[in-house]
Amino acid sequence: MIASHAPFPITLLGFFLASVLSIEAHPFKRTILPNEIRAASPILSDYSPVLTDGTSSLPAPTGALKYITLGRGTQNYTCATAASTPVSVGAAAALFSVAQLLPAVSVSKGQAALNALPNTAIGDTITQIEQSGLPTIGQHYFTAAGVPTWNLFGDGVLYGSSVGDIPAPAGANAGPQGYGAVDWKALAGVAGSVGLTEVYRVETAGGKAPASCGGFGATIQVQYAAMYWFYD
Ligand SMILES: *[C@@H]1O[C@H](CO)[C@@H](O)[C@H](O)[C@H]1NC(C)=O
């Protein structure tokens, strides 16, 4: 008997993961059990993030790749007045490990799937992604002092300072609110970071601020998804 692992629900991400894994997604024909795709550890060094939008590039990482995660949450902005331009005040996102997907497919197929994940995951809620079988291994948030933070629970904490920022490529998913895809970024860990020295936010979908505040005058939460690659 196999214990109570939930099968992939019929979500965009569920279909996507099932197609990546070449496994039938239909619930009445076949369910995918998380233990089936956790059979082996991937060799992380076989994988690398795309660091260019075709015009400009992010600086290459210097450390060793430690975690590849899918982030899904909101980028937050405020408007001092209804007539001002939105200003970033932080973000909140769940970080899902994708490592267990990789041993099931070839490196080239796995790499392509990783790069495409945010485009699919933006169509699902955090709860739906949790139900798809990807484990949550951390949270992204801003400290009270406004420092972007990636907390991988027991596996490291990174307080980031930007070392590179390029626009998302033309044609990136603009997100459900249609404001556009937030920039790709490289951040280096500052004092207080533990076990992680760099993080890259790439393959963004959504998250960009609206061009103007219009009638908002308050906090704007913009849905987004991105891949976060962590180095030590
Ligand atoms: C950002 O929005 C999220 C909701 O997605 C909220 O939980 C979080 O507290 C907000 N953080 C900031 C810094 O505004």
TrEMBL record:
Keyword tRNA processing: no
Signal peptide: 1-25
Keywords: Signal
InterPro entries (UniProt xref): DUF3455
Pfam families to which the protein is assigned, alphabetical: DUF3455
Keyword match Nucleotide-binding: no
Regions crossing the membrane: none
Protein name according to UniProt: Malate dehydrogenase
High-level lineage: Eukaryota, Fungi, Dikarya, Ascomycota, Pezizomycotina
